[in-house]
Structure formats: C-alpha cells, structure tokens
Amino acid sequence: MLKIRFSYADVSLVSLKEKNKVKEFIEQLFILEGKKLEHLQYVFCSDSYLLEINKTFLKHDYFTDIIKFDV
Fold first, then answer.
1. What are the tens digits of pLDDT across the range 3-50?
2. Alpha helices by DSSP H, 1-71
3. Any bridge partners for residue 4, and if so which?
4. CB 28 within 8 A of CB 34
5. In the chain, how long is the greatest CA-to-CA distance?
6. How far apart are CA 40 and CA 51, in angstroms?
7. Long-range pairs for 57-60 at CB < 8 Å and ≥24 separation?
C-alpha cells in the first residue's frame, strides 16, 4: 500500500506537479518529527463535497481543512 496518495473526488484538476518531490518532502517531515507515517491521503474536492463528509462522518455542519479517520 502506498503511504501517501493524492486523489480527486468531485473535481477535475490538472495533475499535481512534481508529485514525487511533494511525497519526499512529507516523508522527510515525518522523519524530522520522529513520527511514523502509516498512511496519508489528500483528496481534492469541492466545498460542497467536503461539507457532506463533515456532516456524514463528523456530525457537524461546518467546514474543516483536515479530516482525520482512524484506521
């Protein structure tokens, strides 16, 4: 399984430039902080899609920048 993934929900964007460099940077941050990186997924989506995720899974009706799910 890939540790870091980038995906798109209900939007179509031009692909992320230099994706591998971004992944390497994130991995280095975890190393510097002494933390284990198990899985990290970025989902690019619209505000309405994000709000539905907040309502469905977190039971609140407002936006957040980050949503964390325990695996």
1. 898 888 988 776 777 888 999 999 999 999 999 998 898 888 999 999
2. 19-33, 47-53
3. 40
4. no
5. 36
6. 20
7. none
Tell me the residue type at 6: F
Residue 50 buriedness (CB in 10 A; 0-12 / 13-18 / 19+): middle
pTM for the predicted model, two decimal places? 0.70
Distance CA 4, CA 24 (A): 10
φ/ψ of residue 22, rounded to 5: -65, -45
**Token representation of residue 25:** 């940077």
What tokens appear for 62 in the block? 């407002």
Any idea what DSSP says for residue 61? S
